[in-house]
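fyi for ur records
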Amino acid sequence: MGPRIGSASKGPQVLDKDTQATMVTEDTSAGKANPEPQGLWSRAFHSLKFFLLCHSLLQLAQLMISGYLKSSISTVEKRFGLSSQTSGLLAAFNEVGNTALIVFVSYFGSRVHRPRMIGCGAVMVALAGLLMSLPHFLSDPYRFDHSGSENVLQDSKASLCLPTTLAPASAPSNGSCSSHTEARHLTVVGIMFAAQTLLGVGGVPIQPFGISYIDDFAHHSNSPFYLGLLFAVTMMGPGMAYGLGSLMLRLYVDIDRMPEGGVSLTSKDPRWVGAWWLGFLISAGLVALAAIPYFFFPKEMSKEKQELRFMWKALTGPASPVSKDEDCPSEESPGELTKKQDSLAQMAPDLTVIQFIKVFPKVLLRTLRRPVFLLVVLSQVCSSSMVAGMATFLPKVLERQFSVTASFANLLLGCLTIPLAIVGVVVGGVLVKRLRLGPRGCGVLCLLGALLCLLLGLPLFFIGCPTHRIAGVARPPGAPPGHAPFPNCSAPCSCPPDDFNPVCDTSARVEYTTPCHAGCTGHASQGTVDKSQVSYTNCSCVAGGGPVAAGSCDSACAPLLLPFILLVSLGAAVASVTHTPSFMLILRGVKKEDKTLAVGTQFMLLRVLAWMPSPVIHGSVIDTTCMYWAQSCRRRAVCRYYDHDSLRNRFIGLQFFFKTGSLVCFALVLAILRQQNKEARTEASVSSPGAMQHLLASGVEKKPEESRV
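which gave:
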């Protein structure tokens, strides 16, 4: 491998490659039917800036699909009766196909036509989005009650307290289960898991190929700026996904097959299910459109010759020379820049797949033995675990803790948390460019960002309220297990045990799972502008006989929603500042011929250790705080009520654990970089006193620059 590296770095070979690329472009252009736009067409698809624009749009649309599932995870749970652990596994299942194939990106990185591979992967992502919406069309219409009717009057009567002799023959869901019903449920869930797997397989070439393609042909000083822009724009994808989820979940799930007279539910009703499937169709269409330009980009393009100084003039002022000491990796000789263009080809230009599989463990071990690379990746694993859990279940926590709708919870994340995270990514890229940070400077910036993020998360443990009292489920603190103001008040009623139509006694802040469990024998409807507000009367379990309002009781800590989401958003912004400098630590912390492999290894480890297990871990932790499970076909389905204090403390505690791990890893990275710098100075002083004087002189010149960090 050594001789190949040396031969690949010679100037004439690079010139030949550029000439060949130009010849291929000319031959391709010559075959076009219309000769007039040849020049403009060729310049557009041979521009790295245009590729950056297209790749940003594609990754934005790709992240809309994966982010949209996270925005509607609580709705999917209610629609198909899933636990948080199962929904977390569903959200993480797209990493299975991605992880299984991500290693081969390192092998095929320079052998294949990278833009076309990205386009093919985008087509698979679009198909996965279409497949994800298929369960809606295969399932029966959504039934939010057991009466088999959709109008308000019969729905209200179905939940009233009736004597056993007058009660209609109940057909609970557990008794109406059949092998066909269970088979359909398993088929629907299996389709969603298959769609997530296809989504992961299609996303394999998109990000690694795009990043390596940009970094190979960008000017070395422009690469951090391009990557920062790419990360910032693509982070708008989850934000747009949450915004799209906020719009779609306001629509009823069966909007395409709405019954006559509509439905009696509103978006505030806990039984409401929004049109979760519609967002997948929209996102899949956007991905398909973004995939078209990739089939026209060349396999290679000319490397940029100039730095984008004009874009940074307002930020950096007059251009200052870059420090050429060991703490600044961005200044490289022309020979080193030539090596960067053939990163993976230098590693294994003539290996077959079998030979690559045999050689890969050695090269992987060589990469993992670099402590800075390994620790930075582990810190990113902790950060990604935190982000994956928060992106998947934070809307659900907001729904339960502060009694907001799923639509409003998604709106908060899409309009506040995600934009602040984008600002953090941009600020991190600007700081790396403005301060011309080297490895140690990037390490300091990452350490400060992780520390501040940890401090901002501490007050979240205390912002919240306990669960209000739910008759038969949650009792006041210190009360005996059988405590009730009117014992056996609903005994004469024939209340179905698995029915769910909550009502709230606002005066005593007590919630009942159905009007029947509150002993209500009458109902009244009060018309409003858009819907009819239903209330229930003659309730034997309520002081004074009622009335009680339909729906769950509002949370007492609703005013605390704003400070809670502000702290979460500020923490996300500070954590995002470390994204670009940590990525530059990885790119500049390995050998140039191992750069593509390092990126592939990084994404593989992030998927295996963070994005795959984190949603399942968070979902399992959330399930441990459930107080009341719904039953469906003799199996545990969706959770109806949670212990709010336990939910908040365990969810935030898990986030705190990952933040602490990221902070420790960055502290070790900074310590190792300082130790490496001391060892380099010691070796230089032993080998050459003159070199030592040069290092000391450069250190004196560098000191004011480091003080700015």
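The CA atoms of residues 441 and 543 lie 67 Å apart. thats all i got for now
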